[in-house]
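Q: What residues go here?
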């Protein structure tokens, strides 16, 4: 029983160590709303976002877009 407990502890430690490299995003929407397309984009190895000036966002939304773009480009 003690060996099994150690194995479970090691397994859990491994899962939690990997969770720092994990992001969970929930996509919901009606049929045809683009959730599947968004999922395909997010699962790709590289996400190429346009430059902030090229986006159609303005004001606070443009600031949020720049923050997200900077994060995506760096990670």
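A:
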């Amino acid at each position: 029983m003690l060996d099994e407990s150690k194995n479970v502890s090691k397994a859990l430690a491994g899962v939690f160590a990997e969770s720092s490299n994990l992001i969970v995003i929930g996509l919901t929407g009606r049929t045809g709303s683009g959730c599947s397309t968004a999922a395909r984009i997010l699962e790709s190895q590289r996400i190429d976002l346009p430059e902030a000036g090229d986006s159609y966002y303005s004001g606070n939304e443009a600031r949020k877009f720049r923050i997200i773009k900077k994060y995506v480009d760096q990670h």
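A: Context that may help when evaluating the design: The chain has a mean pLDDT of 76. The longest helix spans residues 2-18.
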